[in-house]
C-alpha cells in the first residue's frame, strides 16, 4: 500500500475505534441504560480509543516515511558491485539517480527483458540494480503497511482490555490532548531551530571553502565556479559587499518614498481626516498592502522601469533598464501602508492629555503634531521604520523581477544593482549540485539575511516596548 | 508660575501683555498659513496613496484585457485523402486509427495555399503557414475525428492564429515594430482574410481550461490554478489545526514561565522572518533531509504552513482572549473540566475570529512566491496536477514565469493571470471582512 492509501485506511480504523471503544465501555457498564456506572462518559472512552489507535500509528508512519529512502538507498548500494561502491559520493549519487529513473519508468517484466536481451555487463548491472530497487521498495511498502496496522490494532486491544467502571478515560484523553496542544505550540520553536540549524549548517560547509572574511568584506561577486580547472572566467569570487550595498541602496530609495508619505498619511488620517474619509481611505490603502509582491515585481519591471528609463533618456542620462530606482520606488509603494498603519498606532497611543494641553496653550494642530505628538510617538515611529527596513531587506520578488543580476558596487540609483535575495534565488533555482560552493553561498547569504532581519525586529520590539512602559 | 511673575515684574505689566498679543497676532497669519500647508501636504499624501492604487490596478487591468479574447480564422479545409496520406481505395473505409495518424499538417498547408493561390515561393509559403498557431493542425484533426463524414470533402474550420498575429490584430502596431515577427506580405494576407470576413475575435476560454504552454496563444492557467488549490488545501489542513491548538495552549493552559515566554518571542519573530528564508528551510530540511518530492504541492503547503502559522496563532490568540472570562467561570462552576471548558465553550465563541485570522493567513500564503521558487515549484509544467505529490506550479509563480517570457503576447497573459489572482484575493478578503463584521455585531 502506498502512503496516502495507508493514511486513509488508518483514518477509517481510527473512526472505527471510536465506535469500538464506545461500545466496549457500554459493555463494561452493562448496557446503555447503565452507563452512569462509568466514571467517564462513553464518548470519552471512544475518543481515547480513537486517539490511541491513530496517533502511535501515524507517528510510526511519518518516521518510516522520512527514513525509508535513506535505508533503501543504503541497502541498494550494498548490493552493487565493488567498483561502483567505490565511486565518489557525487558519481554514486548520479548512478543511483539513473537506477531510480529506470525503476520508476519501467515495469519489472520490461527490466527482465532488458537483462536477458543485453549482454553488456554495465547495462545488466544497472537493470539488475533497478530490479533490486523495485523489490526493496515493495518490501518497504509491505513492512510499512504491516507495521502501521499492527501498531494500531495492538494498541487498541491493549487499551480496551484495561477498561473498567472506574477507568479514567476522560483524564487520559485530556492528557493526550494537552500533549498535542503543547506540541502544536512547539512547532514555532521547531521552525526557528530548523531555520537556524539548516542555514547555519550549510553556511559552515560554505565557509570551509571560502573564508568568512573574504565573504563579508570582499568586493568581487561572481559565483560562477569553474567546471574545469583551466576554464576562463570561472574564478568564483564570493565577496558579498556589492550585494549588501545593492540591498541597502534599494532599501534606502524605498524608505525615502515610504517614510515621508506613510508618516504624512498616518498624521492626516489620525488628526485631520473626517471619519468618512478614514472609512474609505483605510481599506483603500490596505489594498496596497494586500497585493502580492510578484504583482509589484511585474509592475516595476514592465511599467515603472521603462518609464524611468525614457524619462532619464529624455534628460540625457544613461539609465540601466533594470535600475535600482525602479525597484526601490515600487518597493516603497509596497511599504507605505505598512509604515502608515504602524505609525498611526504609535500616534494614537499618545495620551490625549498631551494633545489637549498643547491646544490649550493655543498651538495650532500642525504645531501640536510636529512639536508634541511626533516627539512623544517617536519611539513607536522609529520601531515602525525599523520593521519596514527589515521588510524591505527581506523582500524578494520585486528585486528578482526588477533589479539586475550584475553585482555592481555603486551608489548611483540609475545603475543596475543586485541584492542578497536576488542572489539567493539565482543561485538556488535551476538544477545544481547541492554541495557546490555556489549553492552553499546562497545559504550563507540566507544566514546574513536572517541575522539582519532578526536583529532589526528585536531592536524594533525593544524600542516599542520601552516606549509603552513610559505611559502605562 | 513663579517664572511668569518674575518676568512680569521686570517689564511693565500693561506693556508686556499688549506686546505679547501683538506678537501673537502678527505671527498668527503665518502660523495659519503653515497649518494650511501642513494639512494640504497630508491630504496630498493620502491622495498620492490613492493614485498609486489606481495606477497599479488600472495599468494591470488595461494590460490584461487583450488576453481575454483571441482571434480565429476560418479556413476552407480540404480533407483530401491523398493530402491526409490515407489510402482512399481501401475496401474497409477509413478506420479511426488511420484518421488519428493522418498527416494534418499537410492538409493545413495545402488548404491554405489553395485559399491564397497568389502566394508563391518557399519562403513566402512558409511565412503564410506561420500565421496560424502551431495548434491549428490538431484543431483540424479533432474536427475530422469528431465528424468522420467530412473525409475527402471540403469543410470550413475555425483555427487559432499565431500569437504575434493576434497581438498585431489587437494593437494595430506598425509592421516592423520590435518584438513582432511579422512582415509586409503577412500583413497583406491578413488584410485579405479580414476583408473576406474570415477573422473573428472570440472569448479566450482556453485561458481557463488549459495548462501552461510555450506558445502564448495556447497557454492557460488551469495547471497553476489547480496547483494553487492543492497547495492551499495542504496549507489550510496543516496550519489551521496547528495554529488553533498552539493558540489554545498559549492562551488557556500555558503556565507563565520562561518556556512560554520563549515560545511567544519565537512566534513574534517568525512572523517577521523574510519568506525566502522559509524557502531555504524547505529546501534543506523538507526536501534534502526528509526526501519529499521537489516541486510538489505537499512541500509547498508545508513551507507555507510554517510561514503562515505565526499569523494564525497571533490572530487566534486575540480571538480567544476576547472571550469573556464569565463564560469560562460559569462552565467551571458547573463542574466542567478545563479541557471541556476550552473545547465546548471558549473555542466555539472564538471561532469567527479564528476563522478570520486563518483566512488572512491563507490570503498571505496565496500570494507568496519566493519560498516556492526555492523548493522547485518554478519548473515549466504542462500537465494539470491531480495530487499533492505531482509536480506543480502555483498562480504567483506562473505570473513570475510568464513575466520573464520574451513573447509580446505573454505580457497580456501575465496581466490576466494577475487579475485572476487579485480577484481570488479580493473574494477571500471580502469573506474575512463579512465574517469579522458578523463577529463584531455579536
Walk me through the structure:
The complex is a heterodimer of chains A (472) and B (442). With 472 residues, chain A is an all-alpha fold. Chain A is built from 17 helices and two strands. Chain A has two domains: 3-167, no CATH class; 235-471, MetI-like fold (Orthogonal Bundle), CATH 1.10.3720.10. A two-stranded antiparallel ribbon of chain A has the order 1-2. Chain B has three domains: 2-65; 69-209, no CATH class; 222-441, MetI-like fold, CATH 1.10.3720.10. Chain B has helices at 2-10, 13-64, 81-84, 96-101, 104-115, 122-129, 136-146, 163-171, 184-195, 206-209, 222-253, 258-270, 275-287, 297-321, 325-333, 338-366, 370-374, 395-403, 409-441; strands at 69-78, 154-160, 199-203. In chain B, strands 2-1-3 form a three-stranded antiparallel β-sheet. In chain B, helix 13 crosses helix 14 (297-321), helix 15 packs antiparallel against helix 16 (338-366) and helix 16 runs antiparallel to helix 19 (409-441). The two termini of chain B are 52 Å apart. Chains A and B meet through helix 2, helix 7, helix 9, helix 10 and helix 11 of A and helix 2, helix 11, helix 12, helix 13 and helix 14 of B.
List the helices and strands and how they pair.
The complex is a heterodimer of chains A (472) and B (442).
Chain A: H1 3-29, H2 42-79, H3 82-85, H4 89-105, H5 108-117, H6 121-161, H7 169-209, H8 212-217, E1 221-225, E2 235-238, H9 241-272, H10 275-290, H11 293-314, H12 324-348, H13 352-360, H14 365-394, H15 397-402, H16 420-428, H17 437-471
Antiparallel strand pairs in A: 1-2
Chain B: H1 2-10, H2 13-64, E1 69-78, H3 81-84, H4 96-101, H5 104-115, H6 122-129, H7 136-146, E2 154-160, H8 163-171, H9 184-195, E3 199-203, H10 206-209, H11 222-253, H12 258-270, H13 275-287, H14 297-321, H15 325-333, H16 338-366, H17 370-374, H18 395-403, H19 409-441
Antiparallel strand pairs in B: 1-2, 1-3
Helix pairs in contact in B: 2-19, 5-7, 11-14, 11-16, 11-18, 13-14, 14-16, 15-16, 16-19, 18-19
Amino acid at each position: 500500500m502506498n502512503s496516502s492509501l495507508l493514511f486513509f485506511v488508518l483514518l477509517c480504523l481510527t473512526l472505527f475505534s471510536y465506535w469500538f471503544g464506545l461500545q466496549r465501555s457500554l459493555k463494561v457498564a452493562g448496557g446503555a441504560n447503565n452507563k452512569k456506572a462509568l466514571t467517564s462518559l462513553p464518548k470519552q472512552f471512544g475518543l481515547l480509543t480513537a486517539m490511541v489507535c491513530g496517533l502511535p500509528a501515524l507517528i510510526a508512519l511519518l518516521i518510516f516515511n522520512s527514513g525509508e529512502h535513506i535505508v533503501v538507498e543504503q541497502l541498494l548500494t550494498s548490493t552493487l558491485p565493488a567498483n561502483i561502491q567505490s565511486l565518489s559520493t557525487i558519481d554514486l549519487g548520479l548512478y543511483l539517480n539513473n537506477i531510480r529513473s529506470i525503476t520508476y519508468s519501467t515495469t519489472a517484466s520490461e527490466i527482465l527483458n532488458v537483462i536477458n536481451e543485453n549482454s553488456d555487463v554495465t547495462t545488466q548491472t544497472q537493470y539488475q540494480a533497478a530490479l533490486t530497487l523495485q523489490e526493496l521498495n515493495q518490501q518497504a511498502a509491505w513492512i510499512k503497511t504491516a507495521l502501521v496496522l499492527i501498531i494500531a490494532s495492538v494498541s487498541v486491544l491493549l487499551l480496551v482490555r484495561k477498561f473498567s467502571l472506574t477507568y479514567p478515560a476522560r483524564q487520559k484523553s485530556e492528557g493526550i490532548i494537552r500533549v498535542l496542544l503543547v506540541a502544536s505550540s512547539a512547532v514555532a520553536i521547531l521552525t526557528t531551530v530548523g531555520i537556524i540549524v539548516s542555514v547555519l549548517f550549510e553556511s559552515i560547509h560554505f565557509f570551509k571553502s571560502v573564508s568568512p572574511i573574504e565573504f563579508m568584506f570582499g568586493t568581487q561577486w561572481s559565483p560562477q565556479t569553474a567546471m574545469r580547472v583551466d576554464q576562463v572566467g570561472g574564478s568564483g569570487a564570493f565577496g558579498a559587499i556589492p550585494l549588501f550595498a545593492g540591498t541597502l541602496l534599494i532599501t534606502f530609495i524605498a524608505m525615502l518614498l515610504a517614510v515621508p508619505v506613510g508618516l504624512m498619511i498616518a498624521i492626516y488620517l489620525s488628526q485631520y481626516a473626517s471619519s468618512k474619509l478614514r472609512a474609505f481611505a483605510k481599506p483603500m490603502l490596505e489594498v496596497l498592502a494586500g497585493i502580492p509582491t510578484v504583482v509589484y515585481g511585474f509592475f516595476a519591471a514592465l511599467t515603472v522601469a521603462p518609464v524611468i528609463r525614457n524619462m532619464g533618456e529624455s534628460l540625457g542620462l544613461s539609465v540601466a533598464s533594470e535600475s535600482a530606482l525602479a525597484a526601490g520606488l515600487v518597493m516603497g509603494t509596497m511599504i507605505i501602508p505598512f509604515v502608515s498603519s504602524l505609525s498611526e498606532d504609535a500616534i494614537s497611543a499618545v495620551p490625549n492629555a498631551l494633545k489637549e494641553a498643547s491646544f490649550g496653550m493655543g498651538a495650532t494642530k500642525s504645531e501640536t503634531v510636529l512639536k508634541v505628538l511626533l516627539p512623544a510617538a517617536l519611539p513607536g515611529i522609529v520601531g515602525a521604520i525599523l520593521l519596514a527596513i527589515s521588510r524591505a531587506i527581506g523582500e524578494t520578488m520585486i528585486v528578482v523581477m526588477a533589479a539586475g543580476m550584475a553585482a555592481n558596487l555603486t551608489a548611483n540609483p540609475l545603475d543596475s544593482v543586485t541584492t542578497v535575495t536576488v542572489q539567493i534565488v539565482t543561485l538556488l533555482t535551476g538544477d545544481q549540485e547541492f554541495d557546490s560552493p555556489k549553492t552553499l553561498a546562497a545559504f550563507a547569504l540566507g544566514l546574513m539575511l536572517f541575522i539582519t532581519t532578526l536583529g532589526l525586529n528585536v531592536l524594533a520590539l525593544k524600542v516599542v516596548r520601552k516606549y509603552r512602559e513610559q505611559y502605562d | 508660575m513663579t517664572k511668569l511673575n518674575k518676568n512680569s515684574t521686570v517689564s511693565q505689566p500693561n506693556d508686556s501683555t499688549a506686546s505679547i498679543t501683538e506678537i501673537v497676532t502678527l505671527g498668527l497669519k503665518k502660523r495659519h498659513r503653515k497649518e494650511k500647508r501642513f494639512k494640504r501636504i497630508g491630504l496630498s499624501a493620502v491622495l498620492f496613496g490613492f493614485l498609486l492604487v489606481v495606477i497599479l490596478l488600472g495599468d494591470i487591468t488595461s494590460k490584461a484585457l487583450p488576453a481575454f479574447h483571441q482571434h480565429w480564422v476560418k479556413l476552407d479545409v480540404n480533407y483530401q485523402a491523398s493530402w491526409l496520406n490515407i489510402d482512399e481505395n481501401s475496401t474497409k473505409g477509413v478506420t479511426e486509427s488511420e484518421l488519428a495518424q493522418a498527416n494534418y499538417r499537410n492538409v493545413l498547408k495545402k488548404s491554405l495555399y489553395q485559399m491564397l493561390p497568389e502566394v508563391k515561393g518557399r519562403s513566402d509559403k512558409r511565412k503564410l503557414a506561420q500565421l496560424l498557431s502551431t495548434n491549428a493542425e490538431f484543431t483540424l484533426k479533432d474536427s475530422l475525428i469528431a465528424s468522420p463524414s467530412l473525409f475527402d470533402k471540403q469543410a470550413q474550420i475555425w483555427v487559432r492564429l499565431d500569437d504575434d498575429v493576434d497581438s498585431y490584430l489587437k494593437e494595430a502596431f506598425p509592421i516592423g515594430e520590435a518584438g513582432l515577427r511579422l512582415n509586409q506580405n503577412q500583413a497583406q494576407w491578413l488584410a485579405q482574410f479580414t476583408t473576406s470576413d474570415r477573422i473573428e475575435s472570440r472569448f479566450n476560454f482556453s485561458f481557463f481550461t488549459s495548462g501552461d504552454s510555450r506558445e502564448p496563444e495556447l497557454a492557460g492557467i488551469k495547471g497553476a490554478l489547480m496547483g494553487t488549490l492543492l497547495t492551499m488545501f495542504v496549507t489550510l489542513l496543516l496550519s489551521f489545526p496547528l495554529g488553533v491548538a498552539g493558540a489554545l495552549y498559549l492562551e488557556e493552559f500555558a503556565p507563565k514561565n520562561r518556556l512560554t515566554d520563549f515560545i511567544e518571542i519565537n512566534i513574534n519573530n517568525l512572523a517577521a522572518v523574510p519568506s525566502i528564508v522559509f524557502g531555504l528551510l524547505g529546501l534543506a530540511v523538507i526536501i534534502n533531509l526528509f526526501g519529499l518530492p521537489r516541486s510538489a504541492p505537499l512541500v509547498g503547503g508545508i513551507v507555507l504552513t510554517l510561514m503562515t502559522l505565526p499569523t494564525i496563532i497571533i490572530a487566534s490568540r486575540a480571538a480567544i482572549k476576547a472571550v469573556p472570562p464569565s463564560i469560562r467561570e460559569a462552565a467551571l462552576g458547573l463542574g466542567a473540566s478545563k479541557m471541556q471548558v476550552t473545547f465546548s465553550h471558549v473555542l466555539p465563541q472564538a471561532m469567527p475570529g479564528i476563522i478570520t485570522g486563518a483566512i488572512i493567513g491563507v490570503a498571505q500564503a496565496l500570494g507568496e512566491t519566493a519560498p516556492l521558487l526555492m523548493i522547485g515549484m518554478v519548473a515549466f509544467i504542462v500537465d494539470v496536477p491531480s495530487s499533492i505529490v505531482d509536480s506543480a506550479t502555483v498562480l504567483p509563480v506562473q505570473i513570475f514565469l510568464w513575466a520573464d517570457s520574451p513573447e509580446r503576447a505573454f505580457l497580456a497573459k501575465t496581466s490576466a493571470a494577475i487579475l485572476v489572482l487579485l480577484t481570488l484575493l479580493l473574494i477571500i478578503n471580502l469573506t474575512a471582512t463579512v465574517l469579522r463584521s458578523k463577529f463584531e455585531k455579536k
